[in-house]
Amino acid sequence: MTHKNVDFHVPVLARVEGEGAMHVKVEDGVVTDVRLEIYEPPRFFEAFLRGRDYTEPVDITARICGICPVAYQMSATHAIERACGVEVDGPIRELRRLLYCGEWIESHVLHIGFLHAPDFLGYHSGIAIAADHPEMVERVLQLKKTGNNVVELLGGRPIHPVNIRLGGFYRAPSRRELASLLPGLEEAREICIDLVRWTAGFDFPDLSQDYEFISLRHPDEYPFNEGRIVSNRGLDIDASAFEQFSAEEHVAHSTALHSHRRDGGWYQVGPLARWANNHDLLPHDIQALATEVGVGPVENNPFKSIIVRSLETLFAIDEAIRIIRAYAPPNRPYVDVPAREGEGWAATEAPRGLLYHRYKIDEGGTILEAQIIPPTAQNQPSIEADLKQFVEQHLHLDLEELELRCEQTIRNYDPCISCSTHFMTLHIDES
Amino acid sequence: MAATERTPTDNPTLAVWKFASCDGCQLSLLDCEDDLLAVAGRIDIAYFPEASSGMAEGPYDVSLVEGSITTEHDRKRIHEIRALSGVVITIGACATSGGIQALRNGADIEAFMSIVYAHPEFISTLDTSTPIADHIEVDFELRGCPIDRRQLVEVIAAHLAGRPARIPTTSVCVECKARGNPCVMVAHGTPCLGPVTQGGCKALCPAYNRGCYGCFGPMESPNTSALATQFSALGLDDDTIARTFRSYNGWSDAFRSEANRHSPHEVAVAFGSPTGDV
After folding, report:
1. Which of B52, B105, B130, B245 to mutate to test binding with chain A, by most A CBs within 10 Å of its CB?
2. What is the per-residue pLDDT across B247-268, written as a single tens digit (0 to 9) for each?
3. B115 contacts in A (CB within 8 Å)?
4. Which chain A residue has the Cα nearest residue B103?
5. Best interface-test mutation with B: which of A60, A63, A405 has the largest number of B CBs within 10 A?
6. How far is residue A285 CA from its own chain's centroid?
């Protein structure tokens, strides 16, 4: 039977980073209101960064998110270096890409194996999957560990790495140290190809929208740290113009700010967006594997983001191997970044999507202003739009199934609520 | 341990709770890749929303608590968790000292809100970020920003075995010597909080040619004023010295009072009981 009015309530949405709540109102079979509510206690980073030294956001903003600290470190360094008029190239630039490869691998694999796959397979958790499929879970853990090993070697530890500074690193690894990662990465490559095929074999609910996908685009490489901000609808801007394009709105039901286009409309960031905007830059064998498993140059079904994450993980492994093989240590592990009065912007590709930072500093290097726009804040309207469509098209499902699928719809985005700020209740209100 | 309704495996039960934090310390549990399935075989992870949608009702034998208390709702919730838990172990700098977000303490919270939010009236928050032990009795505090995953496994294993956890309370300097690091402060003149900071990280920052920035908080009986004198000798001004102490564990008694000696920014509320709720 098809429900006309439904009402269900999930007090804590599991398998996301942080806590949030959701209200969906269905009247006569039509979803009339969708609200993603976020109660994560505010932590006021942008306020207490004022008055700190320009060298400090690299470590301080990492603490916004324990899942993607490298993303914060990279956006902060690039924005502040730009304010100071410094560009970093050569082996240091390559090491930064390598660090990001490590974070993509560990964050994507955590989400694929532990947060998202349980939805497709009908388990509560990745650990529960292990009871029936121990070999698969052990291989997922091995893959995740490979990513952590990259971050740990370059950064000192997998969470809140200590070796990142303005201009580069405190200490650059030797060729030999980096080469020690190769056997693990080569093994991980084989596991990851299986992971792509494994996830592609899941059942995917129907859902598809004509998304505006926003990501970085670099002329030569699948993006991590550099490039222009582009969309599949013709947007092509420098990071310095991002706040003219996207506005943050403070709504009553959320301690996270919602982003939308200033000229109206919403957009999506993350793996599907990077994929759509940069598919031509991927190695041919990854494109071929994608075709083999039924993922085209543009993927509009958000449930299939799990396959795209697996494919991006494979790219990150290949890129890490390439960087390590070509590596020659820099003469100095960092370039000097002397303070000067100015303003700097940067967007980099966190595993969950575009992460924007802006800093204004004075001539002595004191921070006057800081602005941070995390990917999940940008994706909130897109998540709400998906939920609205999904609920309208699936009112025939029994309520328990509908509830689970709604949670899965949210998890398609790997939402990081600690980033955007916590507490997800799904509440469909009977009117 | 509390009497618990046993699950079919008869293993002790574990719950993981989050307050204001970055999720990194609870993620450390999932980062124990080599030990995770072994740990999961010895305990029932009964409540861990970040990792599982299976949420068993309490009581729980062991609760791991991440994050600091920053809202009225959370100030009540932590008491409920205490009542449901046999052992409460706090994990990380937020839970043991208020975290980086305790930089709000003593600041003008109205001004803070208006910097971040267009409608401060939508936001419900306390003026302070405070550690869990300010609110309830805590059985063990595991330090770090983030915690060290090997220490986490040790603490869980010790509680399961009913023995004290082997977690050193000596300084980072001890670990630096054990690791054979040259002293960054003596050799390079780099300011380093290692002499007053509890070890546990294996002297990570000095091993990467930088000074310790105090992730694990103050060691037992730290001589912060002697270190501050050394910082002055290295050319740091008072504001910089205050900022150096005022970070991830800046609200711990030792670091807070040393910071306030150099810059009175937070003196107004520094020594009172910040929440009046102990």
Report:
1. B52
2. 999 999 999 999 999 987 643 3
3. 44, 46-47, 50
4. A48
5. A63
6. 24
Q: All domains of chain A, ordered by start, with CATH?
A: 45-395+402-420 (1.10.645.10)
Main-chain dihedrals φ then ψ at residue B51, nearest 5 degrees: -110, -20
Q: What is the 3-state secondary structure (H, E, C) of chain A?
A: CCCCCCCCEECCCCCCECCEEEEEEEECCEEEEEEEEECCCCCCHHHHCCCCECCCHHHHHHHHCCCCHHHHHHHHHHHHHHHCCCCCCHHHHHHHHHHHHHHHHHHHHHHHHHHHHHHHHCCCEHHHHHHHCHHHHHHHHHHHHHHHHHHHHHHCCCCCCCCEECCEECCCCCHHHHHCCHHHHHHHHHHHHHHHHHHHCCCCCCCCCCCCEEEEECCCCCCCCCCEEEECCCCEECHHHHHHHEEEECCCCECCCEEEECCCCCCECCHHHHHHHHHHHCCHHHHHHHHHCCCCCCCCCHHHHHHHHHHHHHHHHHHHHHHHHHCCCCCCCECCCCCCCEEEEEEEEECCEEEEEEEEECCCCEEEEEEEECHHHHHHHHHHHHHHHHHHHCCCCCHHHHHHHHHHHHHCCCCEHHHHCCCCCEEEEEC
Banded model confidence at residue A270, pLDDT cuts 50, 70, 90: very high
Sign of CA dihedral A259, A262, A267, A270: negative
- Are residues A15 and B49, on separate chains, in Cβ contact within 8 Å? yes
pLDDT band at A260 (very low <50, low <70, confident <90, very high): confident
Query: Is B38 part of the contact surface with chain A (CB cutoff 8 Å)?
Result: no
Q: CATH 3.40.50.700 spans which residues of chain B? A: 13-161
**Length reported for chain B:** 278
Question: Comparing A10-19, A105-114, B207-216, which segment has the lowest mean pLDDT?
Answer: A10-19
Report the SS3 class of residue A30: strand
Q: CB-based burial of residue A335 (10 Å sphere; 0-12 exposed, 13-18 middle, 19+ buried)?
A: middle
Q: Which two tokens stand for residue A414?
A: 């790997």
- d(C-alpha B42, C-alpha B157), whole Å: 9
The rounded mean pLDDT for chain A is 90
**Both tokens assigned to B162:** 């009913």
Instruction: State pLDDT tens for residues A146-191.
Output: 999 999 999 999 999 999 999 999 999 999 999 999 999 999 999 9
| pTM of structure | 0.93
Query: What was the pLDDT predicted at A251?
Result: 67
Q: Which of A:321-340 have CB within 8 Å of B?
A: 333
Please provide the CATH number assigned to the domain covering B13-161: 3.40.50.700
Of B30, B52, B116, the CB nearest to A14: B52
Q: What is the mean pLDDT of residues A195-206?
A: 96
CA distance B209 to chain A (A): 6
Contact call for B54 and A124, based on CB within 8 A:
yes
Determine, for residues B22 and A144 on separate chains, whether the beta-carbon distance falls below 8 Å: no
